[in-house]
Amino acid sequence: MALSTLERRIRIKQRIRKRVSGTADRPRMTVFRSNKQIYVQIIDDLQGVTLVSASSMDKEVAEKATGLQKSEVSKLVGKLAAERAIAKGISAVVFDRNGYLYHGRVQVLADAAREGGLNF
């Protein structure tokens, strides 16, 4: 029997997480993508703490996002996440695509975070 889309993504996610882990020096930047929204967290896995988060539901993004395409909103979220990370003194992260293809909104978000000053 074939896997559902969610089961397939979870298997891919587990394969990625075996290799990708966030430390205090290079925290993990993970992306969650729903049909309408996109969320980013920068996580220190050793302490189990979320250091920075940004999403398309934040006020700064939601005000600008009216009438924009989802990929353009992802770009705004990536820039916001980079700004907040740099404000906390985080300049290098490990990117976790969370089982999604590195394509579309995930890629746009990653590129915007790089433009914002994050290294990965």
TrEMBL record:
<comment type="similarity">
    <text>Belongs to the universal ribosomal protein uL18 family.</text>
</comment>
<dbReference type="Pfam" id="PF00861">
    <property type="entry name" value="Ribosomal_L18p"/>
</dbReference>
<keyword id="KW-0694">RNA-binding</keyword>
<dbReference type="GO" id="GO:0003735">
    <property type="term" value="F:structural constituent of ribosome"/>
</dbReference>
<keyword id="KW-0699">rRNA-binding</keyword>
<dbReference type="GO" id="GO:0006412">
    <property type="term" value="P:translation"/>
</dbReference>
<dbReference type="GO" id="GO:0008097">
    <property type="term" value="F:5S rRNA binding"/>
</dbReference>
<dbReference type="InterPro" id="IPR004389">
    <property type="entry name" value="Ribosomal_uL18_bac-type"/>
</dbReference>
<dbReference type="InterPro" id="IPR005484">
    <property type="entry name" value="Ribosomal_uL18_bac/plant/anim"/>
</dbReference>
<keyword id="KW-0689">Ribosomal protein</keyword>
<dbReference type="GO" id="GO:0022625">
    <property type="term" value="C:cytosolic large ribosomal subunit"/>
</dbReference>
<protein>
    <recommendedName>
        <fullName>Large ribosomal subunit protein uL18</fullName>
    </recommendedName>
</protein>
<comment type="subunit">
    <text>Part of the 50S ribosomal subunit; part of the 5S rRNA/L5/L18/L25 subcomplex. Contacts the 5S and 23S rRNAs.</text>
</comment>
<dbReference type="InterPro" id="IPR057268">
    <property type="entry name" value="Ribosomal_L18"/>
</dbReference>
<keyword id="KW-0687">Ribonucleoprotein</keyword>
<comment type="function">
    <text>This is one of the proteins that bind and probably mediate the attachment of the 5S RNA into the large ribosomal subunit, where it forms part of the central protuberance.</text>
</comment>
